[in-house]
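Ticket #4471: structure export looks truncated?
Reporter: QA, pipeline team
Priority: medium

Steps to reproduce: submit the single chain below to the structure queue and open the exported record.
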Amino acid sequence: MDKFFLKFFSAFIVVFILDQIIKSFFLGGFDWNSKCISLNFTLNKGVAFSMFAFLGENLKYIQTGLISIVLGYIFWQRESIKQYAFPLGLLMGGGVSNLLDRFLHGGVVDYVYWHCGFDFAIFNFADVMIDLGVLLILIISFQNHDKKVKINN
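Actual output as written to the record:
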């Protein structure tokens, strides 16, 4: 197995398994509240901020298609995107875990709710890993761009 697949699948599997384990606690009834953060089970039938919930059951099939296309692109272009293996693994691990929730539970299991000073969307570990993956991709892209600018000057 080449380094790309090792990095990608390691990140993917760790995020996927951790996310499903954490969600099982909330599905089992875990509940905790404080002044600023509440950890409560919520089923999100949409995407971020419950957008596209009107798509109902179709949303999981649309997301399955999108994730399949992205995974196909990742494996097809792995040589040209090899520096993104780890962040893509984080992103896809979170995305597939949330997609599995849609098939098993009818929506994504969310549980972290920030309500100190302002109300924020309810989210989960997979969402954080998706955001972290995107952030790392951006950082790597900017670093690569800076290196190209320095080489060309």
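Status: closed, not a bug. The export was complete when the record was re-opened. Leaving a note from the reviewer for reference: The longest helix spans residues 125-152.
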